Amino acid sequence: MERKGICRVSWQGIEGHDPVVERFRGWLRSGKLPSTFLFVGPRGSGKRSFARQLARCLHCEKYEDEKLDACGECAACRQVDAGSHPDIVEVAPPDGKAVIPIEDLIGDRDHRMREGFCYELSLKPMYGRWRIGILDDADTLCSQAARSNQFAAANSLLKMLEEPPPQALVILIAESDQQLIPTIRSRSQVVRFQPLDNEVVTRILLEKQLVEDSQRAGLLGECSQGSIARALEMNRDDFIEFRKSLFKSLADGQSQLADKIELVSTYVESGESKEASMRRRRTRDAIRLTLDFYQQLMRRQVGVELQGDALLREVVERRAQQGAPAAEELASRLDICLAAEVDILRNMNVANIIPCWLEALHGC
Ligand SMILES: [Zn+2]
């Protein structure tokens, strides 16, 4: 008999998205594979890896498409693995850039629509049945068009999606479908990717040797909110140290507001760069950790089993022993943290957010 939790199904080394695999098998079996997909899900949940593996399976010479499998040994599989298969076109913002350069989409001024993603996809496949385009960070297309005042790229893409070339398969990848131009969304089959389970994140970190220490991998998994990318971002000694100090401070019912502001501000200002995005990310770390703490304290107060690592359980227990706030008060503290997180997303100045947020917490 299969026992839940023991039998692990992993498709092409990708865990946690079996329902998506089955949907694709269904489309392929029925011969009704849509031509444009929009993969939506949190960062680090495996959307791009999934798109690449899908392309690999569709190109593999050994298996029929509907098997959705790849041998890893045929010429096509090898080319895909080497990133050199001519029938796969991938674009994404370059390292350190937030948006995809227009020329990558529609060619530079001298080669408009004779180079770039849209042109490449209009060509006939060289080897396989499919010409597959993977466009990462598609959510940036809309703001890009607005910012650069050049709608040409978005328009060309729209035109292509309206009348897709016969053998093209387009996969757009986005964190959210809210910012996308509605016409792009309406022309795509939306496929949602759920955040990974925290345990799956831990396992992937260890299996792919991204983190060596199993205790650390466990901790990062718990803080990851189901995102490998987020877990890796937090794989820093200063984050681990800050988490310890912040939890200690939260566990102390007598700790002073000024000390908390000092603790958080020091962490936020000590990132490797002084860029606003870095400071926002670090402020968000502090808010998320505080949320973790109050969520567990809430569980403790209403008699539900605690989650999290030994440190989190210990500090929650310590706070509870001192006579923790009642459930309603904890609920308003959680609200205050969530509101502070929204302020971060709205790009408010972190120098204002930190004292306002901590004062509100202290005052309730
Ligand atoms: Zn193969």
Protein model, in words:
The chain is an alpha/beta fold and 364 residues long. It folds into three domains: 183 residues, Rossmann fold (3-Layer(aba) Sandwich), CATH 3.40.50; 40 residues, no CATH class; 128 residues. The strands form two sheets. A five-stranded parallel sheet has the order 4-5-6-3-7. A two-stranded antiparallel sheet has the order 1-2. Helix 9 packs antiparallel against helix 10. The site of zinc ion has 9 residues, from helix 3.
Number of separate structural domains: 3
Helix content: 40-55%
Gross CATH architecture of the largest domain: 3-Layer(aba) Sandwich
Rg to the nearest angstrom? 24 Å
Strand content: 5-15%
* Ions and ligands: zinc ion
**Distinct helical segment count:** 17
CATH topology of the largest domain: Rossmann fold
- Mean pLDDT, to the nearest integer, reads 89
Major sheet characteristics: 5 strands, parallel
CATH class of the largest domain: Alpha Beta
Helices and strands in order, then pairings?
Elements: E1 10-11, E2 14-15, H1 18-30, E3 36-40, H2 47-59, H3 75-81, E4 88-91, H4 102-106, H5 117-122, E5 131-135, H6 139-148, H7 152-162, E6 168-174, H8 182-186, E7 189-192, H9 198-207, H10 214-223, H11 228-233, H12 237-251, H13 257-269, H14 276-301, H15 310-321, H16 327-345, H17 350-363
Parallel strand pairs: 3-6, 3-7, 4-5, 5-6
Antiparallel strand pairs: 1-2
The structure holds zinc ion (ZN).
